[in-house]
From TrEMBL:
Organism: Streptomyces dengpaensis
Domain HTH cro/C1-type: 23-70
Record's keyword annotation contains Hydrolase: yes
CDD domains found in the cross-reference section: HTH_LacI
Name of the featured protein: LacI family DNA-binding transcriptional regulator
Family: Belongs to the glycosyl hydrolase 3 family.
Length: 520
């Protein structure tokens, strides 16, 4: 029975036996510490993975045996005779849910005993003794649909809203006269560019290539064929009306991909010689649409002005292929915005817009760190007009707030979603401050010709920063609220001056950290 803490009561005789047997078990985290390795390494040893050195495997297995984690032979025709799961924190919600899940599976599968013991201390145990081959057969549990239609629809929505149109000289959306489409690049027909390194297919199934993914992940080529059933697809750019070049990353862990945990890059050149694929396509003379499916931004300066359009999707998920195909065809009007800047040169960095004045282009350095595409950048297939904003209070106290109001109108011929971004500029501070900092944004869906009013309620707490004495403070003085299309100075539509009045305030954890946004 589960007690009020949400764990299985072990006051029974069975629970007492389990508590006595397992109360001295240490956690896998402690075993990793004693072995001088990471927790994932211990996990790989326990799971029999081959990507562990013999010396490390021997050291970890010695400790596992020492602490009572002996491997148990499989029961005839069944699983291992005992499954031990040790948690560091039984009270955490995820641990409770795992324990409940183990109990349900145990009962449904004819498993003998499930014990969760909060009295063990910092570790808690779930022990499940499996049924022997002689046990009577039980009804198999009903299959669980891990990819139901409503979740698939949500994945499609997220993917469509995240695709970023970086550049476009009219090549997108495809014109009605486009009939022959060349699709090139290593990721054109590979789902690896859609999934991050911690997705199950890229995290686990790379070790089991014979196992099916279990989830449908259309490639961009497959999605384009479905999106444009009347088009002819080819691999020859010279025989096509337009050429789609698909490059980017295959995710993986610790060197098994080009992006992911433990997969670092010496520079931001497209990996694996993919730049040559882009060069070859451009040399054919056919308009090129460059599509990046990646986990990091890559330097695009040598191609951006030569391509008809550039589209970026950061590991867009199981519906990423159809989402990108929808943007190319025009079914989807792109509304994604860059969460990181895209550098111009390969020796650049994924530039943070949170740079102080000396971190920007200036006389202090001969290098220009200005990104090719800034944080917050993204284009659309329609146009928008922003009317001059109004502010409720241009002067308000250091513990107060003000509301900024802006009307946005869709002046194009098709529906779309504008993204209004609000940045804070603090010209004077006791320490170096970022030139601008994003404090709010609004996604504003509009039909052609429609308008909406956006309200940003800005608390003075959002101007707080950590001063030289270590306190987080709100200072009186002048600020600018910048309504912009991105973090770049050239994309600022309106700069609204406001003044904070009153004494300097020290703020703590209770400070207001969000700008309330309403779209009317």
């Amino acid at each position: 029975m589960w007690n009020r803490r949400g764990v299985l009561d072990t006051s029974t005789e069975v629970g007492a036996v389990a508590r006595e047997s397992f109360k001295n078990k240490v956690t896998i985290t402690e075993i990793a510490r004693q072995a001088g390795v990471s927790v994932p390494t211990v996990s790989r040893v326990v799971n029999g993975r081959s990507d562990v050195s013999p010396e490390t495997r021997a050291r970890v297995e010695d400790l596992l045996r020492h602490h009572g984690y002996q491997r148990r032979p499989a029961a005839p025709g069944g699983r291992a005779a005992l499954i031990d799961l040790v948690f560091n924190d039984l009270d955490s919600p995820w641990a409770v849910e795992i324990i409940r899940g183990v109990e349900e599976v145990a009962h449904a599968s004819g498993v003998g005993t499930v014990v969760a013991d909060p009295a063990v201390g910092s570790a808690a145990l779930v022990a499940a003794s499996t049924a022997s081959a002689a046990a009577p057969a039980t009804t198999a549990p009903a299959p669980v649909d891990l990819d139901p239609p409503h979740m698939r629809a949500l994945a499609r929505q997220l993917a469509e809203e995240s695709v970023v149109l970086l550049a476009n000289d009219g090549a997108l959306p495809f014109a009605s006269g486009v009939r022959r489409i060349a699709v090139l690049g290593p990721l054109a027909d590979d789902p690896a560019g859609m999934l991050g390194c911690y997705s199950f297919p890229r995290h686990v199934l790379l070790d089991y290539p014979e196992v099916e993914t279990g989830v449908t992940v259309p490639t961009l080529l497959e999605a384009l064929r479905a999106e444009l059933p009347d088009a002819e697809f080819t691999a020859d750019p010279m025989a096509a009306d337009v050429c789609v070049v698909v490059v980017g990353d295959r995710s993986g862990l610790f060197g098994r991909g080009t992006s992911g945990e433990g997969c670092d890059a010496a520079d931001l050149e497209l990996p694996g010689g993919q730049g040559e694929v882009v060069d070859t396509a451009l040399a054919a003379g056919t308009p090129v649409v460059l599509v990046l499916l990646s986990g990091r931004p890559y330097a695009l300066g040598r191609w951006a002005d030569r391509c008809g359009a550039v589209v970026q999707a950061f590991f867009a998920g199981e519906e990423g292929g159809p989402a990108v195909a929808g943007v190319l065809s025009g079914r989807v009007n792109p509304s994604g915005r860059l969460p990181v800047s895209v550098p111009r040169d390969s020796a650049g960095q994924p530039w943070t817009y949170l740079a102080p004045p000396l971190g920007r282009r200036g006389e202090a350095s001969t290098l220009d760190p200005t990104p090719l595409f800034p944080f917050g950048h993204g284009r659309s297939y329609t146009s928008y007009a922003w009317q001059r904003p109004s502010v409720d209070d241009s002067a308000f106290p250091t513990d107060g707030e003000t509301t900024l109001r802006l009307t946005v109108r869709n002046t194009g011929e098709r529906s779309g979603t504008e993204v209004v971004q609000l940045y804070l500029h603090d010209p004077v501070g006791k320490v170096a401050r970022p030139v601008v900092r994003l404090i709010g944004y609004a996604r504003v869906p509009l039909e052609a010709g429609a308008s909406a009013e956006v309200h940003f309620t800005v608390p003075a707490d959002l101007a707080a920063y950590t001063g030289p004495d270590g306190d987080r403070i709100v200072e009186p003085g002048e600020l600018e609220l910048r309504l912009a299309m991105s973090s770049a100075d050239d994309d600022v539509r309106y700069a609204v001056p406001v003044t904070l009045t009153g004494p300097e305030r020290v703020v703590g954890r209770e400070r207001r950290m969000r700008c309330e946004v309403r779209v009317k």
